[in-house]
Amino acid sequence: VPVLHEIRSLVTGRHPEGPGRLECIPDAAVAWEGETLRWVGPAGDLPTEWRDAPRWSAGGGVVIPGLVDCHTHLAFGGWRADEFEARILGKSYLEIAAAGGGILSTVAKTRAATTAALLARCRHHLAAMARLGVTTIEAKSGYGLSLEHELRLLELYQAIAADTRQHIVPTLLAAHLVPPEFREDREGYVRLVIDRIIPEAARRGLARFCDVFVEERAFGLPEARRILEAGRSAGLQPKLHADQLSAGGGAELAADVGACSADHLECISETGIHRMRAAGVVAVSLPFASLYLGVVPLPARRLLDAGVPVAVATDFNPGSAPSYHLPMAMTLACTLQRMTPAEVLHGATTVAARAVGLEDRIGTLEAGKSADFAVLDAESVEHWLYHLRDNACTLTVARGEAIWRATP
Length: 408
Ligand code: NIG
Ligand code: FE
Hints:
- The chain is of the alpha/beta class.
- 37% of the residues lie in helices and 23% in strands.
- A hairpin with a 2-residue loop joins strand 2 (24-33) and strand 3 (36-42).
- Bound molecules: N-(iminomethyl)-L-glutamic acid and fe (iii) ion.
């Protein structure tokens, strides 16, 4: 039963007065037992039963809930640095995709990679995320695009989840793009997703969410609705990649099908904003994707002011967002999306927990929740996000165990 003390300030992540206000406990202490938080409060009030418990020092740093990266495409083969350059020289994301690059080139590299190689890469990325304070990672399939390869990616996430302290939330994204084998028969692929891939993934408990890339070159609204409804009846909650490159009614569909989150939303319509608020859908902002594709980010201020909860995630993938640095995405959410540091902190903890349906277990520091937290060498959350460094995180604890400790 360790106790963490010498905490300058602890941010609980709770925000009863709205996401713009941080709830802070100065000179705090935290006690946990196994995977579970037992007590959080001012150090002077630590109950006597923990007075003699082993002490871990936070070194006078700030403690925040473990960061939740609620949107990643974690498992993929190869990289696409060639496209990074092509885009700089003026080619658009859609032109690159039309010329055989983009998502489908990663599909080919992913299918060709051995499971052992994909596993090793994922573990490497997860260890790097642990050093940044990230304790929960949503991970999508979507670079397999066949029954065999989509399930292989989800099985890989299951294997990783079994041997890491980080929480892994698996999402089936078989509807990322129509694979080349079905180029002349997109309905055949939609049927494969609905009749085989979704039922199999659900039956084997391999996914929690079903996601669809709703976009002109990917899946249309009627197809997306059928896929998300099939997922929901199989027990997979809906999520969408919506309104990223064009305003396609994705946010409205998310509200219609009761999605847990709608992600991207750079081109969301005014109606979409109001429908999402009414339906309680979380908006997931992905500042790296907006930055790398050179598009105007989602209107975070309008969403927040309308009462839509806004999460912040990396979208880590080899094309539009080749970075897993969530703290950097958070700083970008402040500067590009005009979210305040408090809104961004909640966006990568409490609100992100909601976007992955785990708000009862993670996202805030309260007795009864998972012992997931990060210690920052910073004087405040505001100062942390403002003074961008390679890494300010000195200790990461996930489910009660240290998964990263900086050498002093
Ligand atoms: O979230 N938008 C679709 N999917 C990814 C991009 C994937 C890729 O380019 O490989 C995204 O941005
Ligand atoms: Fe994505």
